Amino acid sequence: MIGLLAFVVPAWIFVIGLYGMATSRHLVHLVMCLSVAQSATYVLILEVGYRLGATAPVFSDVLSTVRATDPVVQALSLTDIVVGATVSALLLAFALRIYKTCGTVDPEELRPMRG
Fold this sequence. Notes:
Shape: elongated
Distance between the termini: 52 Å
């Protein structure tokens, strides 16, 4: 059974990342806050897939009666990490390109841009 804390901790991490994104005045800081908000999904997925007293899902030398964690949860977590790293790399590349083009990474100074 999943306790309330399993949902409170990821929500708290997500709110901190969301607050950082809302108050960010630097594009790199914005990307890092997005990474913090996305890390809440890793924590939530791993907490939901946790089973008390379970072993790793390697069944070569374990009896079939032994409880094991769900390997799908681990695969989803790894996929989420890879997607998050890819999105962060792409956004950092965009921030670098904006800095080279405009000379600033402050979102407020980029507002007059059109087109």
